[in-house]
């Protein structure tokens, strides 16, 4: 009798511990959704006046200004761009968290899209003393069906980080195809990421080295958004890194290949 009573007490205790855990998890989810909603509303509200500030500063830049005035207007525009990037990140992140991120689908001409991105980042890399190389394997199809804007957003984040965390060295963007999946590896010879921080860099608002990052700016949202986008697109985003030697971020996306006559040009990317 004692044994039976003890075992039913243990079952009851276990059940109530499980219930408490579930309640705590639900509470955390509700709090996180509320935080996300709040950030989204605030970001949205700030974006409209911020757009006006940036537009006005751009108009001002076209007027006759002396060197100092021009410098001040440029500072205004640069700061505005950073703030807009931050607001867009917060909005994207909350959209993903709320399960409201919708994907587009179009034919992306692979070599052209990547060459454009490399051209965009080359001057910034060179300013840091970094060489940027693009290597596309011959078997990579002419075009793939994907969301070109989101693909570009992920690559933009990876290249921006590679440039930010590499001084004097090399960045290689290597594109491969296994018959069903496109993979893009962005490797750098930069500062690398400590082994114990490797998985955390994909968490929201997480930065591997607070000191370095504070010097470089950033929100800690870029990789969280990039990984979630890759997953929504049915793919993965992973990292390999050796501290002091560099990092490789690998994006893999299952995408249908489109070749020859079937290729319809992708919509314009702003
Ligand atoms: P952030 O806006 O801070 O760059 P991310 O989510 O893009 O946010 O990156 C998170 C953190 O991961 C960075 O703050 C940095 O510590 C680390 N990290 C990302 N990419 C690299 C890289 N290529 N080399 C070294 N560290 C990196």
Automatic annotation (TrEMBL):
Whole-protein coverage range: 171 to 440 of 578
Domain Histidine kinase: 41-257
Source organism of this protein record: Brevundimonas basaltis
Lineage: Bacteria, Pseudomonadati, Pseudomonadota, Alphaproteobacteria, Caulobacterales
Descriptive protein name: histidine kinase
């Amino acid at each position: 009798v004692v044994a039976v009573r003890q075992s039913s007490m243990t079952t009851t205790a276990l059940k109530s511990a499980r219930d408490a855990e579930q309640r705590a998890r639900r509470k955390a989810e509700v709090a996180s959704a509320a935080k996300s909603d709040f950030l989204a509303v605030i970001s949205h509200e700030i974006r409209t006046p911020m757009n006006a500030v940036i537009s006005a500063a751009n108009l001002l830049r076209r007027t006759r200004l002396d060197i100092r005035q021009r410098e001040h207007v440029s500072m205004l525009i640069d700061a505005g761009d950073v703030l807009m990037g931050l607001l867009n990140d917060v909005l994207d992140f909350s959209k993903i968290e709320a399960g409201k991120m919708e994907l587009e689908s179009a034919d992306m001409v692979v070599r052209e899209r990547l060459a454009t991105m490399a051209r965009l980042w080359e001057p910034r890399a060179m300013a840091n003393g970094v060489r940027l190389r693009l290597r596309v394997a011959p078997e990579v199809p002419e075009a793939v069906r994907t969301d070109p804007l989101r693909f570009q957003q992920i690559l933009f984040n990876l290249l921006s980080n590679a440039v930010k965390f590499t001084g004097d060295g090399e960045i290689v963007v290597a594109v491969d195809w296994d018959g069903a999946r496109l993979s893009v590896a962005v490797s750098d010879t930069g500062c690398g990421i400590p082994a114990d921080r490797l998985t955390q860099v994909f968490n929201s608002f997480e930065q591997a080295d607070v000191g370095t990052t504070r010097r470089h700016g950033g929100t800690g949202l870029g990789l969280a958004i990039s990984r979630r986008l890759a997953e929504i697109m049915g793919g993965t985003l992973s990292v390999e890194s050796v501290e002091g030697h560099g990092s490789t971020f690998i994006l893999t996306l299952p995408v249908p290949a489109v070749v020859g006559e079937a290729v319809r040009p992708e919509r314009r990317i702003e």
